[in-house]
Amino acid sequence: MRFVVNSIVVAMFCASGAAFADCVADLGVDEARAAYVGAQSAEASGDRRAAVLGYRRAQGYTCDPNPVAAEAARRAAPLALELGRRAEQVGRLAGGNDSAFTWFEAGGYYAQADRVLW
C-alpha cells in the first residue's frame, strides 16, 4: 500500500508541470538593465572605465534571457580595446584592475589579453 501511495505522490509532482529547481544567477534582468543604463550614462559623461565595467556587469548571467547582454558587449568592446591599448603603451601589461590584460579581457579581446599576459 505504501508503494502505491508514494507512486501516486510522485506522479502528481511529475504531472503538475511546475519546476522546483532554483536558478543561481549573477543578477536579475532588472539589475542587468540598470547596469546597462548606468554604463550608458558613464559613457556619455566620458568615463570609459566605468562604462566598460557597467557594460560587463550588464552582460551577467540571468535566469531569464538577458535582453541587454548582446548590446552591452557590442558597446563595451571598442571602449575596452582603447583602454587596453593605452595601458599597454605605458607598460601596465598584467596585474591590477587597470592593466592591459584586464581591459582586453573585459572587451572580449582574448588573443590580445593572452599576448600581454605572456
Word description of this protein:
The structure is a single chain. The relative contact order is 0.12. The protein has one domain. It is globular. With 118 residues, the protein is an all-alpha fold. Helix 3 runs antiparallel to helix 4, helix 4 runs antiparallel to helix 5 and helix 5 runs antiparallel to helix 6. Helix content is 66%, strand content 0%. The chain is built from 6 helices and no strands.
Number of strands: 0
Series of H and E elements = HHHHHH
Mean pLDDT: 87
Overall number of structural domains: 1
Q: Tell me the structural class.
A: mainly alpha
Radius of gyration: 22 Å
Helix run count: 6
The end-to-end span amounts to 68 Å
- How much of the residues is beta strand, in percent? under 5%
Largest sheet: none
- Poorly predicted residue ranges: none
Tell me roughly what share of residues is in helical segments.
Answer: 55-70%
Shape: globular
Task: Give a topology summary.
Layout: H1 2-15, H2 29-44, H3 48-58, H4 69-89, H5 100-107, H6 110-117
Helix pairs in contact: 2-3, 3-4, 4-5, 5-6
Jot down its keywords:
0% strand; mainly alpha; 118 residues
What is the compact description of this entry?
This protein is mainly alpha-helical and 118 residues long. Helix content is 66%, strand content 0%. The protein has one domain.
